[in-house]
Amino acid sequence: MGEKNKIGSTININITPDSLLEELTLIEGLDTHSGMANYGHNPQFYFLALLHFFTNCNAFISELKKAMESGAWTAYFIKIHEIKTVLTACGMNGLSEWAERISETPNGSCVKETLPFCAALQDFRKKIGRTSLLSFTPTNSTGIKRARAGNDVEKELEEIRRLTISYEIDVTPENAENIIGKGMIKR
């Protein structure tokens, strides 16, 4: 029996990493093979990265638009690079290439591309929200849900840091909830 996720789609409450990965492969423009490779072929870390995108997408868009509207081009190009990095790491290659093209334009010339790019980010966020990803709970290798103790959290943060260092994602205990996703770690 399913229940509704935050977007309103019916979800499977018996989610396994394999079933979720299979579901995600159906999203056009999401290269789960490259995304998984970027996270050491660890589906849980990959799912956490996708949750990071889902959770922070609106903030990315807001900050990008704010920088553009105020003419703060340095902040704009830093934000577009940050977004591109997240997109690349997650296997959203088409959007990542679009962000790369925008980042190569001179100050002010990127304005005409920004709003359609932001709309495409929002559309992609909606596609992810229609999957079972929002109901995914990390499990151990046997598939049994587990609560994490403080030491387990630190070990997982270290592993996420190791896997994301080349993508310039700063993982700290303070921002871990955003990266790992609300409710993903039980303390």
Key terms:
3% strand, 8 helices, two-stranded antiparallel sheet, 2 strands, 187 residues, disordered N terminus, mainly alpha
How is this structure best described in words?
This protein is mainly α. The protein has one domain (16-180). Helices cover 59% and strands 3% of the residues. It contains eight helices and two strands; from the N terminus they run E-E-H-H-H-H-H-H-H-H. The chain has helices at 17-24, 32-38, 43-70, 73-90, 93-103, 111-129, 150-164, 176-180; strands at 2-4, 10-12. It has a two-stranded antiparallel sheet with strand order 1-2. Strand 1 and strand 2 form a beta hairpin. Helix 3 runs antiparallel to helix 4 (73-90) and helix 4 (73-90) packs antiparallel against helix 5 (93-103). The longest helix has 28 residues, at 43-70. It is elongated, with a radius of gyration of 17 Å. The relative contact order is 0.17. Residues 1-12, 140-150, 165-171 and 179-187 have low confidence and may be disordered.
